[in-house]
Amino acid sequence: MNTKVTPGEIVVMAGAAVALVFSFLPFYNEDLFDPSAWGGGVFPVGTLIAIFAVIAGVLVALTKFASFKFAGVLGFTYLQLLLVLTFYSAILAVAFLILDYGDVGADRGVGFWFMLIGAVGSLVGAILMQNEARTGATGPPRA
């Protein structure tokens, strides 16, 4: 079993962990909403950012450390599914970034900003994994 973890896999798993941990911190700095992404103000759409990133991170961890053989889902290969999950997570986070909350006086909290970083990071990791699979590269060359 090859347990050598590539940089792309590390970035996907780290981004998923960041998105999950910070989803429990305040998504907004306002009393109108429940502070976390799991609260009534942004649930379920804001929660999907963390859920899709975590699914991608768990999928990477299972295939790398538990010898899970991914057969494909709905015609998607392993890397394609990772790219779709992480892209959707990142695009939802960017949509919350673009959304204007000036009329209710809400401001984005620390949980949102780190979920955005985690979602975009997991997307970058999935793109790195695509490039690693295409080129056969597993990281920087050794001296």
Question: Keywords for this structure?
Answer:
single chain, 143 residues, mainly alpha, 4 helices, 0% strand, elongated
Structure description:
- With 143 residues, the chain is mostly helical.
- The protein has one domain.
- It is built from four helices and no strands.
- The protein has helices spanning 7-22, 45-65, 78-98, 110-135.
- Helix 2 packs antiparallel against helix 3 (78-98) and helix 2 packs parallel to helix 4 (110-135).
- The protein is elongated, with a radius of gyration of 17 Å.
Topology record:
Layout: H1 7-22, H2 45-65, H3 78-98, H4 110-135
Return the structural class: mainly alpha
For the termini, the CA-CA separation is 25 Å
Number of helices, where a helix is a run of at least 4 consecutive DSSP H or I residues: 4
Outline: elongated
Poorly predicted regions are none
Order of helices and strands: HHHH
- The proportion of residues forming helix, as a percent range, comes to 55-70%
- As a whole number of angstroms, the C-alpha radius of gyration is 17 Å
The number of domains? 1
Measured by DSSP, the beta-strand proportion falls in under 5%
Q: What kind of sheet is the major sheet?
A: none
How many strand segments?
A: 0
Can you give the mean pLDDT? 88
